[in-house]
Design brief:
By secondary structure, this protein is an alpha/beta fold. Helix content is 31%, strand content 28%. The strands form six sheets. Strands 5-4-3-1-6-10-11-13 form an eight-stranded mixed sheet. It has a four-stranded mixed sheet with strand order 15-16-17-19, covered by helices on one side. A two-stranded parallel sheet has the order 2-12. The N and C termini lie far apart (76 Å).
């Protein structure tokens, strides 16, 4: 009997120990809920995850490039800055990719929304528009099997990195700064055709004044002052590499973010965003390779570093900071004047075309996510008309509707005008709608 009693005690003690260990393990794995005091202050968390393809894929951005990738020059990442105030959240996601073509925006977004319990308007899923990343596709009719597998894998990675950022929420202070960079230039160059008449080609047109602002947001912990994230937005296509390049790369924006994380330390996450750059290319564009002969510095690395260093200089000058600010968000699909793709005539209009607009605010800082390639002057008009102290403009966000040119460009013609599904006046109407939504947010809790 004594042996049985001791055995029973041992079994009972072991069972209780296992239950206790399981309980504390579960507590450690689950995100800790914010205290009542923390709920009333601005909190943020940041995370980064690598999304470099592990097998050859077709690269996006150029129809003439049909072979599979032949290697990796620099890694691709998804970067997240998540903000919370009370029961409101705002999650900014930057991925090193061309964009959400082939109907991939909604499935990728929905996976994140469901797993992380976010409202649709709280998620800004943005691509940097590098033309040296895998083409996304979930339909075998629209993509190589390797790309289908990559996109499904990417979906899980995006859920993982957003969860990680939300798990790290802590009280923060924000600082905003602004700089300027010459990396981007108007690409609508005027050249004579075979008959000697002027036509618009993709090239370099430095005579056109462009918005070269580098927008920077610093996120630092309140308790330690430690910088946890540096967000930046700059208007240029990431097309320093052309269709003859078969190496995976983040191009201008991705290389700038990589430079900053090396300079600031890998604990700092640097989500990068493409500003209004529908008609802006890098100063040196569509190169066939990373040239390194005889000490030559590859132009993509040179220009990415220039952009990254400007972000660093702006960061050093940020002094003022805000430790609180309400969060409000809006997601709206607007209807704009339509046009048949491939037609350049201004009178060739069709049914209205849809365009996704996502608007968010944290106190006096606003974020505008545009679901397409918006011309530079339209982005500048949005920033000028905004009632907020600072307004970040981010394109390729929550959609891939195509180019949105300014009205004057339709008479000139060119690639963007021919390929757009939007008719004359669509860009100006978009500016008006975004401005109205910004004013609505401004008045929400004032």
């Amino acid at each position: 009997m004594k042996t049985r009693t001791n055995s029973s005690r041992i079994v009972k003690w072991t069972t209780n120990l296992i239950l206790a260990v399981s309980y504390w393990t579960l507590c450690l794995c689950l995100p800790h809920p914010a205290s009542a005091a923390e709920e009333n202050v601005l909190r943020a968390g940041a995370a980064r995850i690598e999304i470099t393809p592990t097998q050859p894929v077709t690269l996006a951005g150029y129809e003439s490039r049909t072979n599979l990738s032949q290697g990796v020059h620099d890694p691709l990442s998804a970067r997240v800055a998540a903000f919370a105030h009370g029961d409101r959240k705002l999650v900014l996601v930057s991925i090193d990719n061309l964009g959400f073509y082939n109907g991939t925006a909604d499935p990728l977004r929905q996976a994140i929304l469901d797993a992380c319990r976010l409202e649709p308007s709280e998620l800004f899923l943005c691509a940097i528009h590098t033309h040296s990343a895998p083409a996304l596709a979930l339909d075998i009719q629209k993509g190589h099997p390797n790309n289908i597998a990559y996109t499904k894998w990417l979906q899980g990675k995006l859920v993982e990195v957003v969860r990680s950022a939300l798990d790290r929420l802590a009280p923060v202070q924000l600082g905003v700064g602004s700089g300027s960079s010459p990396v981007g230039v108007n690409r609508r160059e005027e050249a004579p055709d075979g008959a000697g008449k002027a036509r618009i080609v993709l090239g370099r047109n430095p005579s056109v004044v462009t918005d070269r602002e580098v927008q920077v947001l610093k996120v630092a912990r309140v308790d330690s002052g430690e910088t946890v994230a540096v967000l930046f937005a700059y208007a240029t296509h990431s097309t320093s590499l052309g269709p003859r390049n078969y190496l995976v790369s983040g191009d201008i924006h991705g290389l700038a973010a990589q430079f900053l994380e090396k300079y600031l330390g890998t604990d700092v996450v640097t989500p990068e965003f493409a500003g209004a750059s529908g008609n802006i290319d890098p100063w040196v564009r569509v190169l066939p390779e990373f040239r390194t002969s005889n000490g030559w510095v590859p132009e993509p690395v040179l220009m990415g570093t220039m952009l990254g260093e400007e972000v660093g200089r702006v960061l050093e000058g940020i002094k003022d900071s805000a430790t609180n600010g309400s969060i409000e968000t809006i997601l709206k699909t607007v209807e704009l004047p339509g046009k048949r793709r491939g037609a350049s005539q201004t009178e060739d209009t069709s049914a209205p075309a849809k365009f996704n607009v996502t608007i968010g605010r944290i106190g006096e800082t606003a974020f505008v996510g545009l679901g397409g390639e918006v011309f530079n002057e339209l982005g500048k008009a949005i920033k000028s008309a905004s009632p907020f102290r600072t307004t970040f403009v981010m394109t390729h966000c929550n959609g891939a509707a195509g180019y949105v040119p300014a009205r004057a460009s339709y008479e000139e013609g060119g690639y963007e005008v021919q390929s757009t599904p939007f008719g004359p006046g669509a860009g100006e109407q978009l500016v008006e709608e975004v401005t109205r939504l910004l004013r609505e947010l401004k008045e929400a809790r004032n």
